[in-house]
Write a structure and sequence with these properties.
Elongation Factor Tu (Ef-tu), domain 3; about 210 residues; about 10% helix; mainly beta; 2 domains
């Protein structure tokens, strides 16, 4: 059976369960069409389902991909993702949230975090900064020394420095499925998930 789906992050809200307020993220989980089904005894050598989500204009799809969608009998999709070790469906069928998840399940959500642009060490890594007096000059938010001179005469890899912040794939584990609203195709997950509103996320069932 499938172990994951694609969804669209709607935003955050909160619900009450037994008098306790729980912050939740609402994710729209429309039925995911199966664009390709791979099997272990086929040419690919492993079990997987390629799922699609969102709409995409045919004019923005090249001819090889148009043929790929046509073979599956599926309209072009905004996003394609492959989920390993998923069986039980064929190309052209749809995977629904009720087929994969139940209330109380724990999932991992993977998405692209918000891009913050070029950020300094205080914003990016939480550095404390320098003193505001006693000789500090023009470097109140600087990183300080990043290495020594003669030995090792270089900057170590992985040094926390200023640079691009966000805009990378992030996974958040152990989020509980608080509620499945089937008629609206909405899933409520405890806590926050990466990405901005309307971004596409992968929801993977914890094993």
């Amino acid at each position: 059976m499938p172990k994951g789906m694609l969804g669209r992050k709607i935003g955050m809200t909160s619900v009450y369960r037994q008098g306790i307020q729980i912050p939740v993220t609402a994710i729209e989980v429309l039925p995911n069409p199966v664009v390709q089904a791979k099997t272990a005894d086929g040419p690919d050598g492993y079990n997987a389902l390629q799922l699609g989500y969102g709409k995409k204009s045919v004019r923005r799809v090249n001819q090889p991909m148009q043929g790929h969608y046509k073979r599956a009998g599926v309209d072009p999709k905004r996003v394609l993702r492959e989920f390993r070790d998923m069986t039980g469906f064929e190309a052209g069928q749809e995977v629904k949230a009720e087929d994969v998840f139940e209330q109380g399940d724990f999932v991992m959500v993977r998405g692209k975090s918000r891009g913050r642009g070029f950020a300094g060490v205080i914003k990016r890594h939480g550095f404390g900064g320098h003193k505001a007096s006693h000789g500090t000059h023009e470097s109140f938010r600087g990183p300080g020394s990043i290495g020594s001179s003669a030995t090792p005469s270089r900057v170590f890899k992985g040094m926390k420095m200023a640079g691009q912040m966000g805009n990378k794939t992030v996974a958040v584990k152990n989020l509980e499925v608080i509620e499945l609203i089937g008629d609206k195709h909405v899933m409520l997950l405890s806590g926050a998930v990466p990405g901005s509103s309307n971004s596409i996320v992968e929801i993977l069932k914890a094993e």
